[in-house]
Every structure is written in structure tokens, then in C-alpha cells.
Design brief:
heterodimer; A: 112 residues; mainly beta; 6-stranded mixed sheet; 4-stranded antiparallel sheet; 12 strands; B: 114 residues
């Protein structure tokens, strides 16, 4: 079956620290992988995506590389800001019905 | 501006009452989805619709119903049969469900049962 496992939070970092949020997946075939971000009280916003192995998605200083050999899609940012405080969701999608499978979310708090 | 709107933002209902959550999109997307979000559990799929007048159950459809009479609209009814309806409900859409495509989310409705 399809599933996503991401590191549990909450994660608390100081401003300008390096961020890694781990995400691994189980899937049949060749899924696309996504990171979404959710700010308090809001819906999810697409942060970045990758559609095939070795692709790197990037946006707003965040990056993630689709690693088929390790079935991973870890999210990284070199220098976090207070405004990055949010919940981050890793997700995968397969062709059939475009159904998404989400991880449980990782809460990030960045302190000044 | 194109996007997805959900209303109301906050909804309160008494036990035993049905309640309908609105979801509208003007993105001309074919596919629409309803998710439920509970703390620490991520998102779980309730129902999805690939085209007008057609919809499929997701992982937790019991106690919920939907309709898709128009392409732009996909309302969700939380019935009295849903045992624990207090949650944050998110609607999403994508261009098509026939291929992998980004899902775009609305701002959500927080339902509280009193």
C-alpha cells in the first residue's frame, strides 16, 4: 500500500538554524512527492514537489530531493526565519484517482 | 482571483443535527476532495469526486454525505450518524484525477459539536 512517515515534532529552532524534516514513503510504482505547509488556522499550501527520482523541488529557500533508493523526500532549509513557523506535511500521490497520502505533519517553531 | 472558498470558517452544531459545509472553486478543476484533520493524525480522505454527478468514498466516509451537481461546488454534509464530528475540515481540488496533479486547498472549516 501507500503511506508516508515523517518525523514527529514539535521541532523548535533558533532563527538562522538549519532545518531538516525527514520524510520516507512506501508506494507501489512511481509516485510524485509533495511538501505542503499549513499556517495556524489556515488550509494547506503547496511548498514544493518532485515528480520523478532524483528531482529536486525548491521554493522559498526550502529544498527536497526525491531519493528512490532510500524512499525519502527530506525537507531542508539552510537558515530558518520566524515566519517559517508552521506545520509541514509530506505527501505522495499515485496516478490512480490522484489520491494523496499525507504524513501526520511536523510542527516547526522558530524563535528569535 | 482564482481559488477555493469554504464557508463558514467556524461552525457549531448540537448533537443530533446534520450540518452542511460549503466548498466552491473557480479554478475550473474537474476533481474535488474533502479531508478531515485531527490533531496528530494528519489528513484523512472523506470523499472525492472526479467529475460532476460522480463521487467515491474515501477512507472515512461513514457518517458523511456529498453531492456534486455543479463542477464548481462540492458540499459536505456531516450527519448525526458521525460519532465524533468535531474536527477541521479541508476541501481541495485538482485539475484532473486522471493523472498526478497538485491539490489546492481551501482555508478550512472548523466544526465543533456542542
Amino acid at each position: 500500500g501507500n503511506s508516508v512517515t515523517q518525523m514527529e515534532g514539535p521541532v523548535t529552532l533558533s532563527e538562522e538554524a538549519f532545518l531538516t524534516i525527514n520524510c520516507t514513503y512506501t508506494a507501489t510504482g512511481y509516485p510524485s512527492l509533495f511538501w505542503y505547509v499549513q499556517y495556524p488556522g489556515e488550509g494547506l499550501q503547496l511548498l514544493l514537489k518532485a515528480t520523478k527520482a532524483d528531482d529536486k523541488g525548491s521554493n522559498k529557500g526550502f529544498e527536497a530531493t526525491y531519493r528512490k533508493e532510500t524512499t525519502s523526500f527530506h525537507l531542508e532549509k539552510g537558515s530558518v526565519q520566524v515566519s517559517d513557523s508552521a506545520v509541514y506535511f509530506c505527501a505522495l500521490s499515485q496516478n490512480t484517482g490522484n489520491q494523496f497520502y499525507f504524513g501526520t505533519g511536523t510542527s516547526l517553531t522558530v524563535i528569535p | 482571483d482564482g481559488g477555493i472558498t469554504q464557508s463558514p470558517k467556524y461552525l457549531f452544531r448540537k448533537e443530533g443535527q446534520n450540518v452542511t459545509l460549503s466548498c466552491e472553486q473557480n479554478l475550473n478543476h474537474d476533481a474535488m476532495y474533502w479531508y478531515r484533520q485531527d490533531p496528530g493524525q494528519g489528513l484523512r480522505l472523506i470523499y472525492y469526486s472526479q467529475i460532476v454527478n460522480d463521487f467515491q468514498k474515501g477512507d472515512i466516509a461513514e457518517g458523511y454525505s456529498v453531492s456534486r451537481e455543479k463542477k464548481e461546488s462540492f458540499p459536505l454534509t456531516v450527519t448525526s450518524a458521525q460519532k465524533n464530528p468535531t474536527a477541521f475540515y479541508l476541501c481541495a481540488s485538482s485539475i484532473s484525477s486522471g493523472r498526478i496533479d497538485t491539490q489546492y486547498f481551501g482555508p478550512g472549516t472548523r466544526l465543533t459539536v456542542l
